[in-house]
Input
Amino acid sequence: MLTSTLHDLRYSLRALLKHRNFTAAALLTLALGIGINTSIFTLLYSVAFRPLPVKDPDRVVNVYQILDGEFSRQVEGNVALLSYPEYLNYRDRVGGLSGLAASADVKLYLGGNNVEKINGLLVTDNYFSLLGGSSSLGRTFFDKECQTALQCPVAVLSHSFWQRRFGSDQSVIGTSLTLNRQRFTVIGVAARDFAGAEMTVPDVWLPVTMQPALMPENKFLELPDCSWLSVIGRLKDGVSLQQVQAEMQLVAAQMDHNYAGRKTTVNVMPGSYLNSPEVRSEGTPIAILVMAAVGLVLLIACANVSNLMLARSAARRKEIAVRLALGASRSRLIRLLLTESLLLAVLGGIVGLVFAVYLPPILFSVIPEIGLDIDFKPNATVFAYMFLVSLITGVVFGLAPAIESTKSNLTDALKSTRSTGRVSQSRLRNLLVIGQVAVSLVLLIGAGLLVRTLQQAQSTDLGFDQKNLLVLSMDLTTQGYDEARAATLYAQLAERLKAAPAISSVSLAEVAPFSGARETTIDIENRGSSLSAGANMVSAEYFQTLGIPIRRGRQFTEADARSGELPAVISQAMANRFWPGADPIGQRFKESAGTSHEIIGVVADISSRQVGKFDGPLFYTPAPPAKLSGLSFVLRANGNLPATVSAVREVARSLDKDAFVSAEPLEENVRRMLEPARTGAWFSGTVSLLALLIAATGIYGMLSYHVVERTSEIGIRMALGAQRRNVLLLIVSDGMKLAAIGTGIGIVVALALTRVMSSLLFGLGSTDVLTFITVSLVALFVALLACYIPARRATKVDPLIALRND
Output
């Protein structure tokens, strides 16, 4: 058996080398299909499954909590994270772990002549030792060094931040950093290759017990029921993940006794970047869609190579017939032909590895501001995946041609009888071409819908004038400001901004447009309780600054803001939802927190949360002058936005030179909001165009073969008086019939499948007629080009030479 297999491999290799044009075309097609597929797998695997780049990563685990039941819990991040007391409980009572560490992101502002926002990570003192992290300068934290709150103001710098900010200064150890107005002593610089357990390497690591100083508005260390810490552990030798999960589950059950109605399920996962239950549940459908898209590209590539194999097998009919006549079994010939297909697929996969090496970093590089440091280098898992996909691909595109090739009529084949049938007589080849066109059309329609929805979102009416608007924020809560100091600074800043000649209008908002949302529940007498509505606290000038029309009643005044009654202005959508056909002015509603509001006005609906979609029920309340910390300024400039942004920053810094000031045009918020849609449109467009290119290549290859196969027929037609245009139309019509059938099937399939995209589309239906018509015409035009080239070659056949060769 081994000898026979080696013989088949040698024969297949010689055959591929002999027919270099066929081999090159097939290899390129397979390399594209397998390479794109492997690249996307590499990307998804690297962010969701690849072991962390730490010491002995196979022993590292992530710990999450799945909380069920009815209970109240503060969530900072996602609900699967742990509180600090919960972390301590697991750390001290689970014996199957050699260590358990916790971490949390923290916003940091580095003081100095130019205040800079940097990335920080709060960690427990065993974080470095548990992950095997070392220092290139100084030291990292000692275990049990920072157990007491506010008693360990020390910092470890990342290697890249040390190089960028301090120019690789060796004397940085012992110097002071001012972070959120708190002084920290630098004790070390982490090793160049240490990234920890985060996709984004932080600029600085700080003790988690310093949280109250860095985030004075929150006392997370003291809260027993607050989700904010990511927890990572290391298994002891000989202890399995399941054993540790069972131990932690017992501890969780004991903690549940402190919370009526709560039931905790501990989820212990192999250490990787993205494996929390919440991330997996949200990301899995997207990953499936992406893999399905590139899988369809691979399917088109398989159909293309199958067509090439069928065309080549027709030229080998006499060879196959001779083997059959000499006693070779049909199964033996099928195995020989499959060996050739598998060898071709594996070689295509090896060439495709170039994509797996270079494409994932390129894909991430086109996503701005993502700042990830991820290892995308192929490893054993990626190689195994590529090899498995190659084997499956080899069988998929090789089996049908192998079976078809061994059905030869021995008498006709040995006589070298040439088939002169029309294109439609080769049903299998026709079906493969139709399938390629249909699948590529489905991908194109999906991409077209995403591109159209992006265009729709970019050109949609937001309900207010976004031109010349800018957002200014100072994040005073992390800078140690109390409400009184913040109110004083904001009042002074508002006066200076109003006096600035470049500013025409000044307002404040709890949630600036496209920077977040606040949802609450309200009770309305005789209309229901726990009704969902959006909320925003704004200053009296907010509607004027944005240019939001007042539909009914009036807007706020300064007196409203100073009064304790907190009247409300509601959106038209809220009026239509809760007071249909009635006048809402004078009506009252109550928030879940107990605050009651009387409606004094109705304003037009706007789009301030999601581009292309109006906000729905939303109410505004006046911002009390004494509670301004955390609010953002929304300003309207007279023009020259870049100069105005710089001037606004200087005005803010003149009041507090150590404060971090963020000022940017509102259009930047809109751009960031649209970035996922833009990335999705770019990716899907690239994949679908690649699929169309492969499908067009398949049509071209099939017709090119038929031109050669029908040379005699074409020569006879031209000898009998057929004009070149008649031959051209004959060949083009053969190909376009298949393209038209494939387009029709693709439209029907797309009508069914694109419904799952409806949630991703802004102001656009999943059956958008313009998209379907435009994409279909583009696909047919490309198919026409693919048909025209071999058809034009057919018109140049010399009848005398064609008949003489026959």
Remarks:
- The chain is about 50% helix and 15% strand.
- The mean pLDDT is 85.
- The two ends are 42 Å apart (CA to CA).
